[in-house]
Amino acid sequence: MATDEFHVKLYRKFQTFFQEAEKKRRWNPVEDIPWSDLNPDAPESLALCAETFLGVESYLPDYIRGGLEAVRASSLAQRWFTANWGYEELKHSMALTEYLLRSGKRTEEQMFDFQAKLMEEEWERPFDTSRKMSIYGMFQEMATFVIYVRHEKLAKDHNDKALAAVYRFNARDEIAHARFYEDVTRVYLEEDREGTVADLAHVAKNFAMPGVGLVPDYDQRIEVMRDEGKMDRDVFLKKVYFPLLKRLDVSRQELVAAAAAERRAAKAAKDIEAAE
Ligand SMILES: [Fe+2]
Ligand SMILES: [Fe+2]
Question: Per the structure, how many domains does the chain have?
Answer without folding.
Answer: 1
